[in-house]
Design brief:
Shape: elongated
Largest sheet: none
Strand content: under 5%
Distance between the termini: 97 Å
Radius of gyration: 31 Å
Number of strands: 0
């Protein structure tokens, strides 16, 4: 009987923890949304993930990010090349530095 009370106490502590963190409210609202869906989704777990905000990005969003990344990499490469060119041009106009600098 003591073991039963100890596990019940742990369960109650865990339930209070979930309640305090807002987990129970979030799960309840997502489950209610699933219940109220006229056409139930084929994959209930994906529905839960999506509504809890843990779903993976949409394919279109992922493609847009890949395109943006490719564009930014291209711009980066152009800027690196421009930086090298400007440094080389600057060296032409800087006075030559000699080892024994005497004035």
């Amino acid at each position: 009987m003591a073991h039963y009370r100890a596990s019940e106490s742990k369960r109650e502590q865990f339930r209070r923890y979930l309640e305090k963190a807002g987990v129970l409210d979030s799960l309840t609202s997502v489950l209610i949304a699933l219940y109220e869906e006229n056409e139930k989704p084929n994959n209930a777990l994906d529905f839960l993930k999506q509504h809890l905000g843990v779903a993976s990005p949409e394919p279109a969003e992922g493609e847009a990010l890949r395109l943006e990344l490719a564009d930014l990499r291209q711009k980066h490469d152009l800027l690196v090349e421009e930086n090298k060119d400007l440094k080389n041009r600057l060296l032409k106009y800087e006075p030559a530095q000699e080892d024994g600098m005497t004035e």
